[in-house]
Amino acid sequence: SKALYTYTGAYSNVIEQSRTSDIVNHIQKTGDMGCKVNRVHSISSKDKSKYALEFWKILGADSIPDTVGAGHPDEDETYESNILHTNMIYTLENDELAPYEKYWGTIPKVEMLKDTNIIVFDFGSEMYVWSGKNAVLDRKNLALKLAKEMWFEGYNYSDCNICPLNIASILGERAQESLPLKADKRPEWSLFAKITQHRETVLFREKFLDWPDFSRVIRVRSDENIREVSASIDIKPCDVVEMVKEKDKEPDLIVEKNTHLGRGDSYFDEESSRLFEYESLKIKGWRILENSYEELPEKSLGQFYDADSYIFRWDFRQTVKGRRLGGDPSKHLAVG
Q: pTM of the prediction?
């Protein structure tokens, strides 16, 4: 049975998980890369379900393997830096493929995709022959022929520190070993594809640093989409009684053991006629980065950015006050 599978590692962050959902929804909706399925199975690193077994068998395993632990905290950054250096990008010059010096060993950018260009992207396990909508047909056929010849010659990453086709076998808490940087044949699971402008697959688009996501762009409405409505306005006064009938409730944050914090300064419990007052002792904050975090300086504790995530620790002292039957404050206080 055909299905789409998403794999979520134990240490993947929220941004990566959200992006995975976006990609799966796009593939399912558009049939990208010829994939037409109705079922999506989400597999986690600890999943032992039958769908997890199906997933691993597709990848060639007889059973569900044990999850490999994460590597050194700096491993992700080191890997990403080195894997970019393996990107080989060519343009068609005269009758041969020549390195695109400006983008060789870097992450591709949309600006390089001109409508008359023909570019070959070699990512190791994936090779794409991209052509602009106004590229000459004979030139496109020549680039495709040369790219296929290069594809069947295998790969050579002798000038790089790693090889993108086998580096995954030593990442994380795996045994370190010397891996070959070249071979005369690429793995059977490698992908060779021809792509034309405006018909790029999601797998290709994800290779770019700045590929625009128009599904998230707020567009200006065109004149033809604006409906004509009557300009007459019927103004009626608001009912003041209805406006003041129900007052908004004060916000009340409840933490462990049913501790009511109110707005962080005080909270009155009507049921027990007790007043809880809070005094801030210390506040610390951290900004969450992709694979780590950094402590915020004191002057930045009240500054927030909509693209960032934060963790705060608030140390406070709670004082509980009550009242006597006559209404006077009680002499018995509880401080904690």
A: 0.63
